[in-house]
Each structure stands twice: as C-alpha cells, then as structure tokens.
Write a structure and sequence with these properties.
Elements: H1 2-22, E1 36-41, E2 45-50, E3 53-58, E4 64-67, E5 78-84, E6 89-94, E7 99-103, E8 106-110, H2 112-115, E9 124-130, E10 133-138, E11 142-145
Antiparallel strand pairs: 1-2, 2-3, 3-4, 5-6, 6-7, 7-8, 9-10, 10-11
Length: 146
C-alpha cells in the first residue's frame, strides 16, 4: 500500500514540475565573463570576448549586453572576435569553424568552414581586413570573405 502512495507521489511531482522545465524562454545564461581574451571597439560599443562568450558595453547608454545562442548567435565557444571599421561588422569565429558576421543588419551566419568535410583543422589564427575583404589566417591557408 505504501508503495502505491510513493509511486503516485513521485508521478504527481513529475507531472507538476515537468511543464515548467520545458519552457526555455525564462531561462537565463550564466556564463563566465571574468577572463577577457579579446576586445573589439566600435563607434558605439566595446565588445569583449571572455571565456568563450561575448558581452558588450554601450558607450552612450552605459549598458552591458550579453550575447549567446538565446539572442542571436549561431553557436557557442567563441574563439576570436575582430571588428572591421570599413564595413562596420564584427566577425565572430567559433572554435568549430563556424563564423558569424554581426553588422548593422543583424547577425549573418557563414557555416562554410564548419561544414567543410575535407578540412581537418578549422582553427583560425588571425583576421585582417583590407578593401572590404576579410582575410582569415588558418591552419590550412588563407581564406577570404567578401
């Protein structure tokens, strides 16, 4: 008899808490932002890469904004950020080779390096900008994005 009450209690607790656990819109990200690895400054913001995550500080409104997959980024574990003043675009490179271009029109994903099956190492060493082109120094050579 006690066994039936125990099972009924467990099931009722499960069904009461289950719908709340399924809603992710109320979730908050709790990433580590204490070890800054790179900084990219724009006219209005200062972007910081810390522990694989990105946040920014608004120069005008003095507000800190946290960026993650929940609010527009395409992936996790950011490896590098660089800002192009000519195109007003922040280039975000992830450790798996995925690339986001964060500009005035929003975030555009470029998964071509990530999806390439014939490239073993997708590590990006540095990014240089020249004539509205982004030159990526990688382990396999130079990659250019227009």
């Amino acid at each position: 008899m006690k066994k039936k009450y125990y099972i009924a209690a467990c099931l009722s607790i499960f069904f009461i808490t289950w719908p709340k656990a399924q809603t992710y819109k109320d979730w908050k990200t709790h990433l580590a932002y204490y070890e800054a690895k790179a900084v990219a400054e724009t006219n209005d913001n200062v972007f910081v890469l810390a522990n694989g995550a990105i946040y920014s500080y608004g120069k005008n409104d003095r507000e800190i904004r946290i960026y993650s997959k929940q609010n527009g980024l395409s992936d996790t574990d950011v490896q590098m950020i660089k800002y192009s003043p000519d195109t007003h675009t922040l280039v975000i490179v992830y450790s798996n080779g995925n690339i986001d271009l964060f500009g005035e029109d929003g975030i555009k994903n470029m998964p071509y390096l990530k999806m390439a099956t014939n490239i073993q190492s997708k590590n990006v060493n540095d990014i240089c900008f020249y004539n509205h082109l982004a030159y990526f120094s990688t382990d396999f050579g130079i990659m250019v994005i227009n």
